[in-house]
Design brief:
This protein is α+β, with helices and mostly antiparallel strands. It has one domain: Winged helix-like DNA-binding domain superfamily/Winged helix DNA-binding domain (Arc Repressor Mutant, subunit A, Orthogonal Bundle), CATH 1.10.10. It is built from five helices and three strands, in the order H-H-E-H-H-E-E-H. Strands 1-3-2 form a three-stranded antiparallel β-sheet. It starts with a helix and ends in a 27-residue tail after the last helix.
């Protein structure tokens, strides 16, 4: 089980569109650096920097197959997180009846001053 602090660190690492795309690719299967270069349209050194950050945070790992470094997803909650990020929401969460926006009701808790 991952500690909450570790998940927060993982979320910070994921806060980049290239890293999200890398993880989306890895959810579909093993990829090597040249695969990422083609799909991301960025340089090999830039791809490697993103992969290193993901690897040092335990999100992905790699194995060597001849001259290729093959990367795979390691962190089990990433596919669920990516699915959540793709989910479309139509409406905002409704405001509570006691809020100033709806101008109804009063705060149900104890008022502290």
């Amino acid at each position: 089980m991952i500690a909450p602090e570790k998940r927060i660190d993982i979320l910070k690492v994921l806060a980049h569109p290239v890293r999200i795309k890398i993880l989306e690719d890895l959810v579909r299967g093993v990829k090597c650096v040249s695969d990422f270069e083609e799909s991301l349209d960025i340089s090999q050194p830039n791809v490697s920097q993103h992969l290193t950050l993901l690897r040092t945070n335990g999100i992905i790992d790699f194995f060597i197959d001849g001259r290729l470094k093959c990367y795979f997803l390691k962190e089990p909650f990433i596919p669920d997180l990516l699915a959540l990020l793709k989910k479309e929401y139509i409406d905002d969460v409704p405001a509570p009846a006691c809020c100033p926006v709806t101008k109804k009701g009063t705060y149900p808790g104890e008022r502290r001053r």
